[in-house]
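in:
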């Protein structure tokens, strides 16, 4: 990665006027339209942290909570709220104050034609694309990308090594992933537009969870949308298909916060966490929760204490 771009990405966090707005959908978890907030940025009163509906994002939410509590900031975690189409509007309307996100997919949520794929470029683009009142703070060293996987047997049978190979089997294979994949660029839309891929069927399952992984094992789906930090990929010897046209951009973990809550204490605490959290460590923590069935809040608390994040 270009060092200058990386530095620019890590420093990007100032509020920039929005050039794009969020689309339709739920506007408030309360169902009353909510009330967006703005101001000079203050964590007084604490922060409500929301998470999406998959294990890793919940774990990240608790890691954010531990880092903030270590800086003397009160927190409340609301886990498993739903997909990006739900949690982003909730953040905009002030139902939650902070959300763990992923650079590339977040940018594509607001600009589905965004060309950026490198971390520093993505961070700069996010400062422009995010709606007014929201900021993307320093991104973490850790990255978790969407990956499209097949079994070793399917790879041999159909000659699958990359996304381009999928087009040779158009109309024959079944794709499985979260329901949002049907209309996302990092999903069926992008595979068709960039690689000319079409499928026999799409099965709406979950995000790198037991449903989609179970379907891949049983052969109910041929291609599954998983996450690169999922320990089951290596455990099952599944094949990650290559992406030669860079459909899937960099996906470093990035905190998205309401500017009204983003004071210096919040920024510093989350930057410390981001610097300590590597991809390897995130994968290890995921395994503790997903495979060893440990509670994500306990895993987060233990890791934060071990890495000196519970004290300023």
């Amino acid at each position: 990665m270009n060092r200058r771009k990386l530095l620019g990405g890590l420093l990007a966090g100032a509020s920039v006027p929005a050039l794009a707005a969020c689309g339709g959908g739920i506007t408030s978890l309360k169902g009353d339209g909510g009330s967006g907030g703005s101001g000079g940025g203050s964590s007084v009163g604490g922060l409500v942290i929301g998470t999406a509906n998959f294990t890793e994002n919940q774990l990240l939410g608790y890691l954010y909570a531990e880092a903030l509590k270590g800086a003397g900031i009160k927190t409340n975690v609301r886990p498993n709220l739903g997909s990006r189409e739900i949690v982003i509007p909730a953040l905009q309307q002030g139902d939650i104050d902070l959300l763990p996100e992923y650079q590339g997919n977040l940018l594509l949520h607001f600009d589905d034609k965004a060309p950026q794929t490198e971390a520093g470029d993505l961070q700069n683009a996010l400062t422009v694309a995010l709606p007014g009142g929201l900021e993307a703070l320093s991104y973490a060293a850790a990255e978790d990308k969407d990956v499209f996987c097949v079994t070793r047997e399917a790879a041999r049978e159909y000659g699958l090594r990359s996304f381009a190979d999928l087009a040779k089997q158009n109309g024959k294979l079944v794709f499985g992933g979260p329901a949002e994949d049907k209309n996302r660029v990092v999903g069926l839309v992008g595979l068709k537009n960039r690689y000319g891929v079409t499928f026999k069927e799409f099965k709406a399952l979950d995000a790198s969870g037991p449903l989609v992984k179970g379907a891949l094992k049983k052969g109910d789906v041929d291609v599954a949308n998983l996450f690169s930090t999922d320990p089951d990929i290596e455990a099952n010897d599944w094949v990650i298909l290559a992406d030669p046209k860079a459909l899937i951009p960099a996906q470093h973990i990035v905190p998205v916060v309401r500017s009204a809550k983003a004071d210096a204490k919040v920024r510093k605490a989350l930057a410390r966490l981001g610097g300590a959290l590597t991809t390897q460590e995130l994968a290890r923590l995921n395994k503790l929760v997903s495979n060893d069935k440990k509670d994500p809040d306990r895993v987060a608390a233990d890791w934060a204490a071990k890495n000196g994040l519970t004290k300023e």
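note: The first strand starts at residue 47 and ends at 52.
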